[in-house]
Amino acid sequence: MSTQHSRSAARIMISPSVLLLLAWMIIPLSLTLYFSFLRYNLLMPGANPFVGFENYSYFLTDPAFFSALTNTLLLVGGVLIITIVGGVLLALLLDQPMFGQGIVRILVIAPFFVMPTVSALVWKNMFMNPVNGLFAFAAKAVGLQPFDFLAHAPLASIILIVSWQWLPFATLILLTAMQSLDSERLEAAEMDGAGPFARFFYMVVPHLSRAITVVILIQTIFLLSVFAEILVTTNGGPGTSSTNLTYLVYAQSLLNFDVGGGSAGGVVAIILANIVAIFLMRMIGKNLDA
Amino acid sequence: MARAVTTNRKITMTVIAWSIGFLIFFPILWTILTSFKTEAEAIASPPSFMFFNWTTENYGVVMERSNYFRFFMNSVVISVGSTVIGLIIAVPAAWSMAFVPGKRTKDVLMWMLSTKMLPPVGVLIPIYLIFKNVGLLDTRTGLVIVLTLINLPIIIWMLYTYFKEIPVDILEAARMDGASLRNEIIYVLTPMAVPGIASTMLLNIILAWNEAFWTLNLTAANAAPLTAFIASYSSPEGLFYAKLSAASTMAIAPILIMGWFSQKQLVRGLTFGAVK
Known about the structure:
The complex is a heterodimer. Chain A is mostly helical.
């Protein structure tokens, strides 16, 4: 039973967090929104006139925006497909009885703890480099021409790197979910004559659907903001072939010093992220009641 | 499991799982191995896996030439600092929401989570300009502030899900026995909350250590942590594979070890309690 006393104490205890997050949200957001309507470039000091939606029309009609949007979707979609299909298979495998399960788990989960700049540079230099990379050695060993991954397939290479980082996350969550599946029920189904595929598609997959949804939503939030991997491998190039929305806004604002244009891009990024966020919040909100 | 598992099947699974685990871990293993090679051996053709002259000279060179210790300390200060400050702010909030829930507690929690959905690039410019004006750019203080704020929702949520599991009956019993709010917190709640707080701390240090958007954009020479230090190897120094590997190994080793201890918490922390 909460008393009047404890309730007012609760309000005092919660207020620092609320005020800080409120400030963190409102101040920068309103500034971004405000800047997005100004002609404001750090290289051209002076008046920053109000220009209405000029920055938006400039940003949205820029061919770079279209390619960045496509790349963002390809990056998010590609990584999601790889990590979820791979994650389900790996979770199935790790759920089997075997020797040294704990050690395999540790090996599989390790990439998640590697900082993005390290994994990107290790893949770029030591694996994908067309002269000294391991992939080049392997290609030469079987008589093929080494392939310059980051020059000729930059986006696919980045998808590969980011998938490697996120596969452990998907695997771990799906494995946790799979371990809560009642093995007696699976055995009963087996005795009733359900084959391995039937058991997988009619029992395991439905049981995992909730965990899969969580993985999709959480990864999407993070994948929309992939940045460091692009910065240290391709710088968004060649051209804009590996520029995503986050990188485009960064380039616009901190490389071109175009505060107005960058802010308009930021607002667009916020709107896109919100569309995803709404679904995620509903998911988690439902769980809170349970 | 009621069913007997044939030994053959178990061995087959073991071999498959170990091979795939090895494959996934290989880039990390290769980085560690390369860090002990000479530069010539690191790019030798064919590459040697284990049989080379092991040397630790790369570690010496990296530490000496690039003032490695400074980057390392920046990483420690920024990740531990932001986590500890975040915990100080979050523990009371999570405590009150878990034990004295009001009508709007759920809305407050959801709203806090929604701040985490804000894409960093959407607020990059204002934060950058504000920091530039008040002299927080390229300072540890500035980064501690930003990382505290971006991880605060996760900290509150994790603590909340842990506190929720503490039986309320015990608190009520303590209250019946006349324990004041202060005593209740110190003698009843704290001992039961410590494991949850420790896990939250561990996971947040990991997240802050690996954060690579704000740390790359808000630092230059002074406050740059290891993420930015490694990024400086992107070219042309990155072509010195052995040195890149040594620097990378040092940057990821502490967090890799911490991470292995926090596997379980990772799932519940990053799914905000939706998967346990």
